């Protein structure tokens, strides 16, 4: 430019060199030469979501106070830095696992402010292998995670779930869990969280790892009545208390069954509770309930109780299903490991393994004190019996029952030997007990008979129904030890009526005479004199047909005892002296001692105390030689009374104390009571109080109406 100005330099139009570097970026990169305006169009951050997924609170709910207390205690004793609390509520179908779980979850939900998540895994399993992964995705969505951020692979989902639960307080409810493997991927990471699990199975891995395990039992009768009253109204239950109690027992304490019968009663307002029980074809005492009753427990046209039992059954392995059917044919409510192995015809270790499967599946329960098992509730037992009749042939069912009944026969015969020793029994002349099974003591044998008495009566019934006549009367022969010591008159009379019929059918006059004599004693002790004499007359006829002198002497002895109890002492003494002569002719020392005892008792009643003492003392010495402590103790009881009449009070106390000690050791409570009563009259101070307390305990334990008499006497003595 001229004139002193300067000239513009030429402009360089070459674009500058751009140096771009991108590192450690995964995904698409877009390079833009120039950006004049930037507008963000991304989604806004999602809102914080607190899931509230618990099902509605159950109503009505019968308070399971014991279980709720266990759950509360478990939550209270958690350390602040432990892993999440895990609770496992387990039990059979219909027991109320979910109901209890939901109620507890609602009670504690305020402690888990970051959310409560819930899922029914029974429905999830129907989706297939990806089901648990889908649960994790659903939980993440419930916590506000957008679908685009939920990983597609299971491990990514489980990892993200742990991250999202690492700091908060979450309650996760997993309903109908099948195994521990379903739970582990869904566990929250925060130690302040909790997992509530309901399951049909024992989840051993979780329990071993520290989970709180609560095994649900059927409702107690009182709670069952409350639940029924909540559904149908207290006034209907109060109007028929006995029928309502029967219906609750019939339902086995199963809440599902109680809801079904309550629905039927609500729908049919004019139907009485007793009428419904009759419609169901139910006798509330098993084993006489008809298995088809399960099909009549219907709701909206569905046999829901049967379906619940069927679900549990179908989830069992094949061998466990067979054992379940076998146990459905068991004649009583409880069964030992030994009879299970015999019934299923399995080695003991295999039977134990299968029992464990049924136990973990909440189909059977174990009584820790007796080590025997029973079905979890009566309706499961009915279902098992129904499956046995549906899937096993009649021939196979009979073979199973035969193995059970014969096991009980062998064991009862061994127990009878342990308690009674040598006595008149079939086979005649047997002087040694069977080698197996064995009992440690007479008391242990009597306790076994007592514990199994309901099942033993069931075995008699089962054998009688099938006309296994020899088994029927032989079982009753073995049960003599039980009925003699513990009475149970209703069982005694029913079983022996069946035994008399069986002995007649199989044409065995010896057995008929024995069974009639034993039945007559039950009638005699209940003062049913006419029936006692009728049986004894028939027993004498059968004994004469049998042509067995000692058997006839035994029948005459039973007749003499009946005369004695009626106060006809001359007739009683004549009968006992006849039996004594027969036993002396046969050289049967035990028979001689027994008849001397009865002669002594009769002479004591007629005032001939010196002669009575001589008879008792001779009987005592014979029994001491024979080692028959049980009968010796009975003789000592009679001798104590004779000594009292003779004024030999110190001798009376001594022999009565010896009798009490023997009977207590043998577990023969009834005979112990016989010795304690006269001893009370011969003692004062603390000893008298002790004897009266023991008398009260004995009479309470046997249901005797005299228990209150001894309670009152004890109260007077303690003043």
UniProtKB/TrEMBL annotation:
Pfam families to which the protein is assigned, alphabetical: TPR_12
Transferase as UniProt keyword: no
TPR repeat placement: 553-586
Ranges in a coiled coil: 519-546
Matches recorded under InterPro entries: Apaf_helical, P-loop_NTPase, TPR-like_helical_dom_sf, TPR_rpt
Signal peptide residue numbers: none
Sequence ranges of Basic and acidic residues compositional bias: 1-14
Entries under PANTHER family matching the protein: HTH-TYPE TRANSCRIPTIONAL REGULATOR RV0890C-RELATED, REGULATOR-RELATED
Name under which the protein is recorded: Tetratricopeptide repeat-containing protein
Organism: Streptoalloteichus tenebrarius (strain ATCC 17920 / DSM 40477 / JCM 4838 / CBS 697.72 / NBRC 16177 / NCIMB 11028 / NRRL B-12390 / A12253. 1 / ISP 5477) (Streptomyces tenebrarius)
